[in-house]
């Protein structure tokens, strides 16, 4: 998945960006047990969760290794650059890096009370937020986790830091929210203050775990004496050094530059086996529970993941790629002590159409929407996983949220005849091969996606539907499509993937407003003044009613562009044995509270 991690009360970045979901606020609804005899919903809460605060419970812990299967592999310690920004990094880093907030299984936004004492709006005009950091919070290398790390998070995400030649110093996946902070100040080592140029209701979504890189490591690697003395408008050469390391120095895994600030640290990464080993962080000041070692393996075939749990090769199967066959297998393992769960995620599967290629033709975009029968896709591919799965009809709101409207039911799935008429009326002519063409361009294109069986099946269904309308589609499956740079480079005709988001709708802005630099996730080239102005107004709104109204305007304008076709809200499915309780958090996966897991008696 990508945060836009690709997975509001909606996979996938709360972080300042959405993450790409290899498969965006408020609560998206109650979890659905879907076949489990155990009270899965009760597992959505942390054991020591209290009101608006989260702390890891200090459980006994246990010796031994827990092996977890997820859909795709880890690629980077810094998950906030365009080429690393995926849910799968998030799933591992959620227990390695600390930040200001924690999301429980119900997507409730909680202050991380293991590392913070408070986050307080000390002034509303201008908006000023103060963060009080707990004393003695440390990185696993013994260095302090403190105000310097918050300052670096702001500097790297602000979009204001430029090199001497005027280029962005830090290539962050998104600047949403951070760019509204005019001043960031370390009042002392444990007090960080942010002052905003505009109101920002989603301020709690900033300074989450993915943003919080170790400032002391960057200083040591670049020779910068004190990152807090480096202003965004400061020395361009120094900013370039800082930005180059921040953007490129935290790929893969190198133990000496990638310490942990959470309950676990990465101790090994096997790129060939796509496996990450986590062991307890000796400097962690919070609860000491959880297994002594966790191995996270990438298992791209969800059916193989289910079989691995059945055979005892893994202890937790955690997939954001719902598969009917795998779901059936997992549900059938209760006699082996396996618990199965499924829940709607804050992630949605969709197809983006590239304006830089043939889909600059709006009539072709419209015809594509009309020919895709999303009900057939959900019926065939999701019902076994989640019985009430339906097509999604918004890209900003999830069903049940205030502001949700059906914007796609009248645009998509109208049938082959409707699509053919749209093309004919626009001057497209069907050739002897049965495929429409216009001005030498055939209505023939590829749908690109990562290596994923359900996505392949999705494309197969669409190929058949489109053929009847005189549209030719080819399946372009590339294991590295999301993390290899093709998506970010707009190297596709149509892209099938997921966005995963925390409960902050401001994050959606980055993927739909006109792209002006590499800090945007709008890879498809969409540009519409109504979308831009509506998102700007919504993000800066001072009251919820105005905020919702402007998000609705943006949602409607995106739909009217026929830019991105939402398919469905992606359900997660997971199963486990040998552990007392596990819940697949929509944005951060199953490891969000691994530090309080207990061995099942």
Report on the structure:
The protein has 601 residues and is of the alpha+beta class. The chain has two domains: 36-315 and 578-600, Periplasmic binding protein-like II (D-Maltodextrin-Binding Protein, domain 2), CATH 3.40.190.10; 346-570, Dipeptide-binding Protein, Domain 3 (Dipeptide-binding Protein, domain 3, Roll), CATH 3.10.105.10. It is 22% helix and 22% strand. The chain has 13 helices and 22 strands. Strands 1, 2, 4, 11, 12, 13, 14, 15, 19, 20, 21 and 22 form a twelve-stranded mixed sheet that branches. A four-stranded antiparallel sheet has the order 7-8-10-9, covered by helices on one side. Strand 16 and strand 17 form a beta hairpin. It is globular, with a radius of gyration of 23 Å. The two termini are 33 Å apart. Residues 1-16 and 22-37 have low confidence and may be disordered.
Keywords summarizing the entry:
601 residues, alpha+beta, D-Maltodextrin-Binding Protein, domain 2, Dipeptide-binding Protein, domain 3, 2 domains, twelve-stranded mixed beta sheet, four-stranded antiparallel beta sheet, 13 helices, 22 strands, 22% helix, globular, disordered N terminus
Helix/sheet category: alpha+beta
Apparent shape: globular
CATH architectural category of the largest domain = 3-Layer(aba) Sandwich
Percent range of helical residues:
10-25%
Low-confidence parts lasting 5 or more residues at pLDDT below 50?
1-16, 22-37
According to CATH, the homologous superfamily of the largest domain is Periplasmic binding protein-like II
CATH C-level label of the largest domain: Alpha Beta
The total of beta strands comes to: 22
InterPro entries: Peptide/Ni-bd, SBP_5, SBP_5_dom
GO molecular function: peptide transmembrane transporter activity
Domain Solute-binding protein family: 114-509
Signal peptide: 1-22
């Amino acid at each position: 998945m990508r945060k836009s991690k690709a997975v509001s009360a909606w996979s996938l970045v709360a972080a300042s960006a959405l993450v790409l979901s290899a498969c965006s606020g408020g609560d998206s609804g109650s979890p659905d047990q879907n076949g489990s005899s155990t009270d899965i919903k009760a597992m959505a809460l942390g054991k020591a969760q209290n009101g608006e605060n989260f702390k890891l419970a200090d459980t006994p812990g246990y010796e031994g290794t827990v092996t977890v299967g997820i859909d795709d592999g880890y690629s980077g310690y810094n998950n906030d650059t365009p080429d690393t920004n995926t849910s799968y990094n998030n799933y591992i880093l959620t227990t390695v890096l600390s930040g200001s907030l924690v999301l429980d299984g119900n997507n409730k936004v909680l202050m991380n009370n293991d590392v913070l004492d408070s986050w307080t709006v000390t002034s509303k005009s201008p908006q000023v937020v103060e963060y009080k950091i707990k004393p003695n919070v440390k990185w696993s290398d013994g260095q302090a986790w403190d105000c310097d790390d918050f300052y670096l998070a702001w500097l790297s995400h602000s979009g204001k830091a430029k090199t001497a030649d005027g280029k962005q110093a830090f290539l962050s996946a998104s600047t949403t929210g951070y760019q509204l902070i005019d001043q960031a100040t370390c009042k002392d080592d444990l007090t960080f203050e942010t002052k905003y140029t505009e109101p920002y209701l989603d301020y709690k979504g900033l300074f989450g775990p993915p943003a919080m890189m170790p400032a002391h490591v960057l200083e040591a690697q670049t020779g910068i004496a004190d990152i807090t003395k480096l202003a965004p408008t400061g020395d361009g050469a120094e900013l370039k050094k800082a930005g180059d390391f921040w953007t490129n120095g935290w790929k893969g895994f190198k133990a000496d530059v990638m310490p942990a600030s959470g309950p676990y640290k990465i101790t090994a990464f096997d790129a060939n086996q796509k496996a990450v080993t986590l062991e307890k962080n000796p400097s962690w000041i919070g609860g000491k529970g959880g297994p002594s070692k966790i191995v996270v393996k990438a298992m791209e075939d969800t059916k193989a993941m289910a079989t691995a749990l059945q055979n005892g090769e893994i202890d937790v199967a955690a997939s954001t790629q719902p598969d009917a066959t795998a779901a059936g297998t997992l549900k059938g393992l209760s006699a082996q002590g396996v618990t199965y769960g499924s829940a709607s995620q804050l992630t949605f599967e969709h197809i983006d159409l590239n304006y830089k290629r043939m889909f600059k033709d709006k009539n072709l975009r419209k015809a594509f929407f009309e020919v895709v029968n999303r009900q057939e896709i959900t019926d065939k591919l999701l019902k076994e996983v989640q019985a009430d799965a339906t097509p999604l009809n918004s890209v900003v709101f999830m069903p049940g949220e205030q502001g949700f409207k059906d914007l796609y039911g009248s645009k998509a799935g109208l049938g082959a005849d409707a699509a053919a008429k749209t093309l004919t009326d626009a001057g497209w002519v069907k050739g002897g091969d049965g495929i429409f063409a216009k001005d030498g361009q055939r209505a023939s294109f590829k749908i690109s996606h990562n290596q994923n069986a359900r996505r392949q099946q999705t494309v197969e269904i669409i190929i058949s539907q489109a053929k009847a309308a005189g549209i030719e589609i080819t399946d372009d499956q590339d294991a590295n499509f999301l993390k290899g740079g093709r998506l970010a480079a707009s190297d596709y005709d149509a892209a099938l993937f997921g966005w995963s988001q925390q409960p902050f709708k401001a994050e959606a802005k980055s993927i739909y407003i006109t792209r002006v630099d590499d800090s945007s996730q709008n890879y498809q080239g969409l540009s519409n003044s109504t979308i831009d102005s509506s998102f700007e107004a919504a993000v800066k709104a001072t009251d919820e009613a105005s905020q919702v109204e402007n998000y609705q305007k943006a949602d409607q304008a995106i739909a009217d562009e026929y830019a991105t076709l939402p398919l469905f809200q992606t359900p997660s499915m997971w199963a486990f044995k040998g552990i007392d309780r596990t819940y697949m958090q929509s944005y951060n996966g199953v490891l969000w509270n691994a530090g309080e897991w207990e061995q099942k008696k």
